[in-house]
Amino acid sequence: MPRIMTMNQPGFRVFALISVGFALKFLSRQLELSGDLSAAAGARLGYHLTALVILIAAFVCFAWAFKMIFFDKPGTPRNDKPLPPTKPDAVDVSPETFDPDAAIARYMSRREGPASGEAPVAKPGSFGRKRV
Prior knowledge:
This protein is mainly alpha-helical.
């Protein structure tokens, strides 16, 4: 069965790449026109080669944006960092084994922020209606 190409919803990165590609294409055209108006042959070659390099960079921007739209898997992170755990580990809170000092220490360590090397824990939103 052939693989069907799916289209991802383009984000800011895609629009930025396309915008940079069009800006580089415009700059390449302006350099090529400047090379056409130059009188010396050596100067024309420099303008045309620079315009060609910039045009290749614009093509790379367009190809990268095309890849991000059609070939990236949607919903997958683009980095290799592991995701933080969704809920904390279970804690025994029976009256015989409960230690209030340890509970406060855990709370304060989470409140101050993650230790070095850990990803920050996402806080729930506080704007809008609250659902029960």
